[in-house]
Amino acid sequence: MIEIRIHGRGGQGSVTMAELLAEAAFYGGKEAQAFPNFGVERRGAPVTAYVRIDSKPIRLRSQIYSPDYAIIQDASLLNDGKILADLKRGASVIINTSKKASELSLPKNLKIKTINASGLALEIIGKPIINTILLGAFAGSTGLIQLSGAEKAIKERFSAEIAEKNIAALRRGFEVINQN
Fold it and tell me: What are the structural domains of the chain?
Protein backbone atom coordinates (compact mmCIF):
# COMPACT_ATOMS: atom_id res chain seq x y z
CA MET A 1 0.00 0.00 0.00
CA ILE A 2 1.21 3.50 -0.88
CA GLU A 3 0.46 6.22 1.65
CA ILE A 4 0.59 9.95 0.88
CA ARG A 5 0.21 12.90 3.20
CA ILE A 6 -0.57 16.41 1.95
CA HIS A 7 0.23 19.41 4.12
CA GLY A 8 -1.15 22.81 3.28
CA ARG A 9 -3.13 25.71 4.60
CA GLY A 10 -6.88 26.15 4.53
CA GLY A 11 -7.88 27.51 1.13
CA GLN A 12 -4.97 26.00 -0.83
CA GLY A 13 -6.96 22.99 -1.97
CA SER A 14 -5.27 20.23 0.06
CA VAL A 15 -8.51 18.29 0.50
CA THR A 16 -9.48 18.71 -3.15
CA MET A 17 -6.01 17.59 -4.21
CA ALA A 18 -6.29 14.45 -2.08
CA GLU A 19 -9.66 13.64 -3.64
CA LEU A 20 -8.39 14.26 -7.19
CA LEU A 21 -5.32 12.10 -6.52
CA ALA A 22 -7.46 9.23 -5.23
CA GLU A 23 -9.86 9.55 -8.18
CA ALA A 24 -6.95 9.55 -10.65
CA ALA A 25 -5.59 6.37 -9.05
CA PHE A 26 -9.06 4.81 -9.25
CA TYR A 27 -9.32 5.68 -12.94
CA GLY A 28 -5.96 3.96 -13.35
CA GLY A 29 -7.42 0.71 -12.01
CA LYS A 30 -6.28 1.02 -8.41
CA GLU A 31 -8.13 1.08 -5.12
CA ALA A 32 -7.87 4.45 -3.37
CA GLN A 33 -9.12 6.44 -0.43
CA ALA A 34 -8.76 10.12 0.47
CA PHE A 35 -9.72 11.93 3.65
CA PRO A 36 -8.86 15.20 5.43
CA ASN A 37 -7.84 15.99 8.99
CA PHE A 38 -8.91 19.38 10.23
CA GLY A 39 -11.20 20.86 12.82
CA VAL A 40 -12.74 24.30 12.91
CA GLU A 41 -9.71 25.86 11.26
CA ARG A 42 -10.26 28.65 8.85
CA ARG A 43 -8.47 29.91 5.77
CA GLY A 44 -4.72 29.95 6.33
CA ALA A 45 -4.64 27.42 9.19
CA PRO A 46 -2.63 24.19 8.69
CA VAL A 47 -4.59 21.35 7.07
CA THR A 48 -3.57 17.76 6.43
CA ALA A 49 -5.12 15.41 3.88
CA TYR A 50 -4.35 11.75 3.32
CA VAL A 51 -4.42 9.36 0.36
CA ARG A 52 -3.93 5.61 0.20
CA ILE A 53 -3.44 3.71 -3.07
CA ASP A 54 -3.29 -0.06 -3.45
CA SER A 55 -3.98 -2.80 -5.95
CA LYS A 56 -6.35 -4.52 -3.50
CA PRO A 57 -9.20 -3.23 -1.32
CA ILE A 58 -8.12 -0.84 1.43
CA ARG A 59 -9.63 -1.71 4.77
CA LEU A 60 -7.47 0.55 6.95
CA ARG A 61 -9.26 3.69 8.12
CA SER A 62 -6.73 5.41 10.37
CA GLN A 63 -4.67 8.51 9.76
CA ILE A 64 -1.37 8.06 7.96
CA TYR A 65 1.47 8.24 10.44
CA SER A 66 4.50 7.22 8.37
CA PRO A 67 3.83 8.00 4.68
CA ASP A 68 5.81 7.00 1.61
CA TYR A 69 5.20 10.42 0.04
CA ALA A 70 4.54 13.93 1.31
CA ILE A 71 3.37 16.95 -0.62
CA ILE A 72 4.01 20.30 1.07
CA GLN A 73 1.85 23.06 -0.37
CA ASP A 74 3.36 25.79 1.83
CA ALA A 75 7.08 25.65 2.62
CA SER A 76 6.57 27.70 5.80
CA LEU A 77 4.96 24.59 7.31
CA LEU A 78 8.42 22.99 7.31
CA ASN A 79 9.33 25.26 10.25
CA ASP A 80 7.24 22.93 12.42
CA GLY A 81 9.86 20.19 12.13
CA LYS A 82 7.30 17.46 12.83
CA ILE A 83 6.01 17.25 9.26
CA LEU A 84 9.05 15.43 7.91
CA ALA A 85 10.10 13.68 11.12
CA ASP A 86 7.89 10.62 10.76
CA LEU A 87 8.18 9.94 7.03
CA LYS A 88 9.44 6.51 5.97
CA ARG A 89 13.18 6.37 5.36
CA GLY A 90 13.76 7.30 1.72
CA ALA A 91 10.31 8.87 1.37
CA SER A 92 9.76 11.28 -1.51
CA VAL A 93 8.72 14.85 -0.76
CA ILE A 94 7.45 17.49 -3.17
CA ILE A 95 7.61 21.06 -1.85
CA ASN A 96 6.02 24.19 -3.28
CA THR A 97 8.87 26.69 -3.12
CA SER A 98 10.92 28.84 -5.46
CA LYS A 99 14.09 27.38 -3.91
CA LYS A 100 15.98 24.38 -5.23
CA ALA A 101 16.09 21.27 -3.04
CA SER A 102 19.81 21.81 -2.44
CA GLU A 103 19.04 25.21 -0.86
CA LEU A 104 16.82 23.71 1.83
CA SER A 105 18.09 22.32 5.13
CA LEU A 106 16.13 19.09 5.26
CA PRO A 107 16.85 15.52 6.35
CA LYS A 108 19.25 13.76 4.01
CA ASN A 109 17.35 10.46 4.14
CA LEU A 110 14.51 11.91 2.05
CA LYS A 111 14.15 12.41 -1.71
CA ILE A 112 13.25 16.09 -2.04
CA LYS A 113 11.89 17.75 -5.17
CA THR A 114 10.81 21.36 -5.38
CA ILE A 115 8.52 23.22 -7.74
CA ASN A 116 7.44 26.85 -7.79
CA ALA A 117 3.77 25.90 -7.94
CA SER A 118 2.68 29.33 -6.69
CA GLY A 119 4.44 31.11 -9.56
CA LEU A 120 3.13 28.64 -12.12
CA ALA A 121 -0.43 28.96 -10.77
CA LEU A 122 -0.37 32.74 -11.10
CA GLU A 123 0.91 32.37 -14.65
CA ILE A 124 -1.59 29.68 -15.75
CA ILE A 125 -4.68 30.11 -13.58
CA GLY A 126 -4.26 33.75 -12.56
CA LYS A 127 -4.65 32.88 -8.86
CA PRO A 128 -2.39 31.12 -6.35
CA ILE A 129 -4.35 27.86 -6.59
CA ILE A 130 -1.61 25.26 -6.60
CA ASN A 131 -3.25 21.89 -6.04
CA THR A 132 -3.50 20.75 -9.67
CA ILE A 133 0.08 21.84 -10.39
CA LEU A 134 1.24 19.73 -7.45
CA LEU A 135 -0.97 16.87 -8.61
CA GLY A 136 0.80 16.97 -11.97
CA ALA A 137 4.16 17.18 -10.22
CA PHE A 138 3.26 14.10 -8.17
CA ALA A 139 2.24 12.20 -11.31
CA GLY A 140 5.42 13.26 -13.11
CA SER A 141 7.80 12.39 -10.30
CA THR A 142 6.24 9.12 -9.12
CA GLY A 143 4.38 7.50 -12.01
CA LEU A 144 1.74 6.32 -9.51
CA ILE A 145 -1.08 8.02 -11.36
CA GLN A 146 -1.58 8.74 -15.03
CA LEU A 147 -2.28 12.20 -16.43
CA SER A 148 -5.34 10.85 -18.23
CA GLY A 149 -6.87 9.75 -14.90
CA ALA A 150 -6.09 13.08 -13.28
CA GLU A 151 -7.57 14.95 -16.26
CA LYS A 152 -10.75 12.88 -16.03
CA ALA A 153 -11.04 13.63 -12.29
CA ILE A 154 -10.58 17.36 -12.95
CA LYS A 155 -13.17 17.38 -15.76
CA GLU A 156 -15.70 15.69 -13.49
CA ARG A 157 -15.04 18.08 -10.61
CA PHE A 158 -14.98 21.48 -12.32
CA SER A 159 -16.90 23.41 -14.96
CA ALA A 160 -15.42 23.35 -18.47
CA GLU A 161 -13.60 26.72 -18.21
CA ILE A 162 -12.13 26.00 -14.78
CA ALA A 163 -11.26 22.43 -15.78
CA GLU A 164 -9.40 23.67 -18.85
CA LYS A 165 -7.13 25.94 -16.78
CA ASN A 166 -6.56 23.24 -14.16
CA ILE A 167 -5.67 20.66 -16.79
CA ALA A 168 -3.13 23.12 -18.22
CA ALA A 169 -1.76 23.54 -14.68
CA LEU A 170 -1.67 19.77 -14.16
CA ARG A 171 0.31 19.26 -17.37
CA ARG A 172 2.74 22.06 -16.51
CA GLY A 173 3.42 20.56 -13.06
CA PHE A 174 4.03 17.19 -14.76
CA GLU A 175 6.55 18.77 -17.16
CA VAL A 176 8.40 20.98 -14.68
CA ILE A 177 8.96 18.68 -11.69
CA ASN A 178 11.86 16.74 -13.13
CA GLN A 179 13.70 19.83 -14.40
CA ASN A 180 15.10 20.72 -10.94
Answer: 2-179 (3.40.920.10)
